[in-house]
Design goal:
Mean pLDDT: 91
Largest sheet: 15 strands, antiparallel
Low-confidence stretches: 1-5, 8-36
Strand content: 25-35%
Number of helices: 8
Length: 468
């Protein structure tokens, strides 16, 4: 079994000329003006929905049929599901094709990331990966497909890749040619217009003990509102409001974030409400490698959603596309039948409840720019071709040793429809701990597209919220 690496078949380039062009881009990264790769021709955009999926993935399957052709993804919720319920597993009858363990790892190394391999080396007796048949389940509303196709011929990188222009609502670069374009696709992928959810976050000790941190999470995606464009949203990508409701020592803390799109032009704005002081304060450090909210030092601020915020501290190289075993259609992990104690264990979450499939992913490598800094000197993202969700991320320390491995356990929230993680986990290979964010099996399912008002996301509203 060999890893396949392909180059983008687009931008009016083919054969040896394409190989030379992409190789040059990979080496130079931003040596040329960052917007020199922006936009594609109408002819290339016409491939979206024909030879390419409407989101830019290869519509065809792979050579041996282990990755099927995309046929529209999930377009109808499965029988037995009703709105408001946790999402029923449409693939519950599947049996694993193989279970990868430390003993048979050598047969599958070329289908795994270095970080995934390191998990077997760190936990040889307990970590495993059950690989199931591949289902290309990703699907989105037609309005998103239409926006993505429109963006393909207009979207541009600005500020040396730190911002985008002339696009709206959907991913800007469905036919990418640079690493930073893929990163922007992840940042601007569709996750509904609003979402409201009550989530659990845990950072167990090396022995497996944990305290559940419960967070009320509300997001208004201004960029995703119908008809929105980069130019119309006033550089406001989204508004976030996170309220910690337990444990008691953290309860009442609130974080408000105004997420800006071009953070080189205007940095992210954040405020925190401290219940002990009953005061709202600016929080300029909620960014980059500063510690994440109530995460016990187990992730950085920019690791929420695997990666968020400004791409400005890294040079991003597009390595290519490959086939890989990645988390996908993890409906069992989403099930309300599971108790938290059945998921959380020492070292890593319980692999018995995980599902991996073979998918094609874009590989993007970020290296810290000279003159700036980050605790992760290098990070590699493996990005789903059908959704632009980062599925796996390897993060390296200053010695170029793998430090943390992140996985997004995604499902299709088919009532929307959209692909997003039901749980994201960041494994620390050095201290034997991890952070899991998104637990709600013993709670309520996420609510998408509930009407929200921007007035709910102001410092004044934060003060009122804190005094209730």
């Amino acid at each position: 079994m060999q890893t396949t690496r392909t180059l983008p078949e687009h931008r009016g380039v083919s054969g040896l000329a394409l190989a030379a062009t992409v190789a040059l881009a990979a080496m130079a990264t931003f040596a040329a003006p960052a917007d020199s790769w922006a936009k594609v021709s109408s002819a290339d955009a016409g491939k979206l929905g024909t030879s390419l999926t409407p989101m830019g993935g290869e519509k065809a399957g792979n050579g041996d049929g282990s990755i099927p052709a995309w046929d529209g993804g999930i377009t109808t919720p499965p029988a037995g599901w009703s709105p408001g319920q946790f999402h029923v597993d449409p693939y519950s009858s599947d049996a694993p094709i193989v279970t990868i363990t430390a003993s048979n790892l050598d047969q599958y190394r070329d289908m795994l990331s270095p970080g995934q391999i390191a998990m077997f080396e760190r936990y040889p007796d307990s970590w495993s990966m059950k690989v199931y048949p591949t289902h290309r389940s990703a699907s989105y509303p037609q309005s998103i497909y239409d926006a993505v196709k429109s963006n393909a011929t207009t979207a541009e990188l600005v500020d040396n890749g730190n911002g985008v222009a002339s696009c709206g609502v959907g991913v800007p670069f469905p036919i990418p040619a640079t690493g930073v374009e893929v990163v922007w696709n992840h940042l601007l992928r569709y996750r509904g217009e609003t979402v409201q959810r009550k989530l659990g976050q845990v950072s167990p000790t090396a022995g497996g003990g944990y305290t559940m941190v419960v967070i009320d999470d509300r997001v208004l995606w201004k960029y995703m509102m119908p008809g929105s464009t980069v130019e119309s949203i006033g550089n406001r990508l989204a508004y976030f409001l996170q309220t910690v409701t337990s444990p008691a020592r953290l309860a009442g803390s609130i974080l408000l974030v105004h997420e800006t799109l071009d953070q080189a032009k205007e940095p992210r704005k954040a405020w925190v409400y401290n219940p002990g002081q009953r005061r709202v304060r600016r929080a300029p450090n909620v960014a980059h490698d500063n510690p994440g909210t109530a995460a016990d030092g187990q992730r950085t601020s920019d690791q929420l959603d695997i990666f968020n915020g400004s791409p400005e501290r890294y040079d991003w190289k597009l390595v290519g596309k490959r086939e890989m075993f990645v988390p996908y259609n993890c409906y069992e992990l989403h099930s309300p039948k599971l108790k938290y104690d059945e998921i959380i264990q020492a070292g890593h979450i319980n692999p018995d409840h995980l599902r991996y499939e073979k998918h094609r992913v874009w590989e993007v490598e970020g290296t810290v720019k000279q003159g700036t800094s980050h605790i992760y000197a290098r990070r590699t993202f493996f990005v789903d071709e059908d959704s632009w969700q980062i599925l796996v991320a390897d993060q390296y320390d200053g010695r170029d040793q793998i430090w943390r491995v992140s996985e997004a356990y995604v499902i299709n929230y088919y009532d929307q429809p959209l692909i997003w993680d039901t749980l994201q986990v960041h494994y620390d290979l050095q201290n034997g701990r991890y952070l899991a964010f998104g637990l709600n099996n013993e709670g309520d399912v996420e609510e998408f597209n509930t009407p929200m008002d921007e007035a709910e996301y102001t410092p004044e509203a934060l003060r009122r919220e804190g005094r209730r």
